[in-house]
Predict the structure.
Amino acid sequence: MVLYVSYSFLFSLFFIQLFIHQNFQLNLSPYILTLLAETNSGESSEFLKTYILSYNSLQTFIVTLCLISLAFLLENRGNKINNTRRKNKIIISMIVLPLLIEGAYASKTYFKLFAAGSSDDVADWMINDFCQPHDTFSYFIYALKGFGVAAHDQERSVSVNLNMDKNNTIVGIGNDSLNIILVIGESFIKRHAGIYGYSLNTTPVMIEQKLKGNLSVFNDVVSPYAYTNKAIHNMLCCNSVSEGERWYDTPYFPGIFKSAGYNVYFWDNQKEDSPNIACSVALNSLLYNSVITQISYTKTNQRSFDYDGQLIENFIKNVKFRSKLNFIIFHLMGQHTNASDRYPHTKDFNRFSSKDIPNKAEFLNDSKRQEIAYYDNATYYNDYVLGQIFNFFSKTESILVYLSDHGEEIYDYRDSRGRVASGINANLLRYQYDIPFFIWYSDKFKQKHMDVVYRIEKSVNRPFTSDNLCHLLFDIGSIKTVYRKSDRDLISPTYKCRKRIVNDSYDYDKFFN
């Protein structure tokens, strides 16, 4: 009986995993369980009508039935074979013993998962500890655990936001209008930006704005994490990583802007990002929770786009400001892997080729140089997108803060791309954690807020971490709130830089002193 129950469970699990992969190119994950939990009977019926008799589903049925038949035949044959011989027992022991040893060794991976207390911890496990090659059972365990802790984190965050102090007011603006724009980039390598000294001019718009006196470039800003989930959770809440504070124990600060009287617009080009990525469900469970959405946003986009420029065009087309005070967040795809997919391959944006790449490392070949060229073209396109935003707000009283969620590598100092973490060292920190950060302001803003521009310019060399972003924005927005701490505000005279802890473990500055 136990044997048949085990077979039923394993074949069901195999069928579900294969069905999801064949139809949607996904794997079992917390995202899938979340979708199932949120699906009503009508949606389930439509889903079955659409997919149950599809070609990919029929393939899945056939493969599963073949495996069940094979298992049945082997089981029957096994019952007829005399397994009492000592020789057979020795052979079986020789096969099973190494598997048991390997299983015991690998079990520590699962202990880490079972010990995870938050969605951040589960995302850490998925990125750093998930066994290779990935197997269906591990995906199943990951999906169950991730679903459970994400729900727990979400409940805590929703409770905190529902019960946050509502006495958030705007002081000193009067009848003036003000647009505050926050642009969150993705995977932007600071050392591939012309404005930071890269030999290829990948940022002509930013350089032009700096020469005109409308852009302040910050030189020493780091992200506490090198992947999107934890970077943005901690960027958009009021906690401080170095102080040991958790994001879900502090408010989501766009809600504070809305409570104070700003209209808040959130245009996100990663809204429909691949749910097979561990961070996606964990991050979107915060950004698009129904309670958080009601508390925090005036309006959001309904879909994502192939290119960030299309996202900005959609915003311009669909948003008509109803208030003098507006807080706008753009979350871009930026230079997210694969960089070649992040920009239109037209004459305007196929700016660089493999022949233009200044990196002469011996491990580079033409293919890798072309990958670098794709990345630099994506950076050039990202600069163009920022130009779209500057142009739209240039005639208004507006200020824009740009930063990337984290950095990246593209064969810069070693034969590696992405964010491979093979031991923390100074070079890895420079490329994966050091991020571009700048503030742009319109002419009208400069004229009316000379004191703010002066404080910004005086602060460009201060060390800073992106998890303290909200305090800077509260200052710019003249928001009086119990959640603002002036000693964490980058442009405040009382700003004090604490230890910059990255990846929950390392003092960033110790690697450079």
User: Anything to note?
Assistant: The longest strand covers residues 178-185. The two ends are 65 Å apart (CA to CA). The chain is about 50% helix and 10% strand. The CA atoms of residues 202 and 380 lie 5 Å apart.
